[in-house]
Write a structure and sequence with these properties.
Number of helices: 12
Helix content: 40-55%
Strand content: 15-25%
Order of helices and strands: EHEEHEHHEEEHEEHEEHEEHEHHHH
Number of strands: 14
Shape: globular
Structural class: alpha/beta
Largest sheet: 7 strands, parallel
Bound molecules: nicotinamide-adenine-dinucleotide, thymidine-5'-diphosphate
Length: 378
């Protein structure tokens, strides 16, 4: 079947994996990648598919509603997969307004432009879909009731042998009440509410998914894993916030992209699905795995980079634990993570070490100045 799919934020980390998957898997679809190319957007992430006949790039700002209206009409869009966002918690603490602008107003502009275009067609919402990508951070933070980790109540074929446990009895489920703490998560929560409101008020065919922390190639090096890999390579300090006791649930980005493909095609209208790796790690433990892996791949003696660990002032409002229960997605659509964490992290570290030019292009210039500013007071 021929379809015209608009993917927003396709030049970013997760978006580039989704664009790549769709362009390669669906030669009959026209994939339109809409991205503003902020500091986080990088067309080098898509070099391998940019010449494919079913791929087009449009540079635009999702807040610009007239431009969104034009793009919906010009490309006759029948499906939207919306990933464009400001995505980094630390930046949201410094500059909350940019997060409200892009994540709230941008999502609203896109919703309204899609609604107007689809309502103008003879078949209206029939065969259309607006799929909004969100985060588990909207649910707030969970307690850390089992500091040493307890046996996970979940099993997946990909769960990590070394680290198959949870740090508490509670998990985020699709009905968990929203309780965002950071300007980032507050802006994402607001955008989720607008998507659901467009469904409930106007009948917009919409789906929302909330995913845990992603890791993998092409992630901007302000986020924990690529930042630390790069700093180890340059023998720079590794800034661990607080005591490094916060827990995150890590999912390999290609597994998220696979889930997005499945849900876009087979998910039920108006539903929410949680996506997660059943793979909880304390920051300090994951940092030690990264150090060990980078040192081994660089041929350094074991423990060589341990001294780079530097405990710094904690992030304001730092959520203690995120943990997703993604059994609904497993049960209803048959998805589960495909990679063992050890394999995912090995592939990830190797990718960053093998693609140093990609990293160096990003970390020169503006980013370097931003990073120095961010850490000079810590
Ligand atoms: P990213 O920061 O790497 O990429 C965001 C992309 O959006 C960039 O290409 C940027 O240029 C583009 N963009 C930003 N503002 C824009 C605007 N006004 N108009 C058009 N494009 C704009 O983010 P990511 O980590 O790939 O996250 C993608 C989505 O997934 C976000 O909505 C995020 O909230 C969500 N999410 C991320 C994670 C994660 O761990 N990274 C987890 C769950 C959900
Ligand atoms: P991050 O990658 O920013 O993702 P998020 O805040 O969305 O979970 O951070 C992951 C965890 O690592 C989080 O608990 C904050 C912590 N962290 C550090 O300790 N040091 C750092 O330099 C960064 C970027 C994050």
């Amino acid at each position: 079947m021929k379809r015209n799919i608009l993917i927003t934020g396709g030049a970013g980390f997760i978006g580039s994996h989704v664009v790549r998957l769709f362009v390669n898997k669906y030669p009959d679809y026209r994939i339109v990648n809409l991205d503003k190319l902020t500091y986080a957007g990088n067309l080098a992430n898509l070099k391998d598919i940019e010449d494919k006949p079913n791929y087009e790039f449009v540079r635009a700002d999702i807040v610009d509603i007239d431009e969104m209206r034009r793009i919906m009409r010009e490309y006759q869009i029948d499906g939207v997969i919306h990933l464009a966002a400001e995505s980094h918690v630390d930046r949201s603490i410094k500059d909350p307004f940019t997060f409200a602008r892009t994540n709230v107003m941008g999502t609203l502009s896109l919703l309204q432009a899609a609604r107007e275009y689809w309502e103008s067609l003879p078949k209206k919402f029939d065969g259309k879909r607006f799929y909004h990508i969100s985060t588990d951070e909207v649910y707030g933070a969970l307690e850390l009731t089992a500091p040493e980790g307890i046996e996970s109540p979940f099993t997946t074929t990909a769960s990590s042998a070394e680290h198959h446990h949870a740090y508490g009895e509670e998990f985020f489920v699709e009905t968990t009440k929203y309780n965002p703490h950071s300007p980032y998560s507050a802006s994402k929560a607001s955008s989720d509410h607008f998507v659901r409101a467009y469904h409930d008020t106007y009948g917009m065919p919409a789906i929302v998914t909330n995913c845990s922390n992603n890791y993998g190639p092409y992630q901007f090096p302000e986020k924990l894993i690529p930042l630390f890999i790069n700093n180890i390579r340059h023998r720079k300090p590794l800034p661990v916030y607080g005591k490094g006791e916060n827990v995150r649930d890590w999912l390999f980005v290609e597994d998220h992209a696979r889930a997005i493909d499945l849900i876009f095609h087979e998910g039920k209208d108006a539903e929410t699905y949680n996506i997660g790796g059943f793979n909880e790690w304390k920051n300090i433990d994951i940092i030690r795995v990264i150090i060990r892996t980078v040192d081994r791949l660089l041929g350094n003696p074991e423990g060589y980079s341990d001294e780079l660990i530097t405990y710094v002032t904690d992030r304001a409002g730092h959520d203690l634990r995120y943990a997703i229960d993604s059994r609904k997605l497993q049960r209803e659509l048959g998805w589960e993570p495909s990679l063992q964490f050890e394999e995912g992290i090995e592939r990830t570290v190797r990718w960053y070490l093998d693609n140093q030019e990609w990293m160096d292009n990003i970390t020169s210039g503006d980013y370097e100045r931003y990073y120095d500013e961010m850490y000079k007071n810590r």
